[in-house]
Design brief:
Layout (H helix, E strand, L loop, with lengths): L8 E10 L2 E9 L5 E9 L8 H32 L9
Length: 92
Amino acid sequence: MTHTTVGWHVELEFKEEDDQHTRAAALVRLPDGSEVRAHGRASRHQVDPNQPRVGEEIAGARALNDLAMQLLSKAHEEIDSASGRTSHPIHV
């Protein structure tokens, strides 16, 4: 049996909108040539200290969560298409 190693490269970009809002954009290019894009956002409460790295972590985590859900949906569609039936939910 031959084993093939496949890698995915995920890109994350951050934008500080102002001192209270951070946006993240995630992108993964799949071996089939398709791309999946996702977004996340973080808001700092006005009484919390300004910690841009924390905003990036929260916005990034939300973008990656969105990316994960889109990949699960894509997998379901591919399973359904190949099998001709509705697949069981994949839980995270």
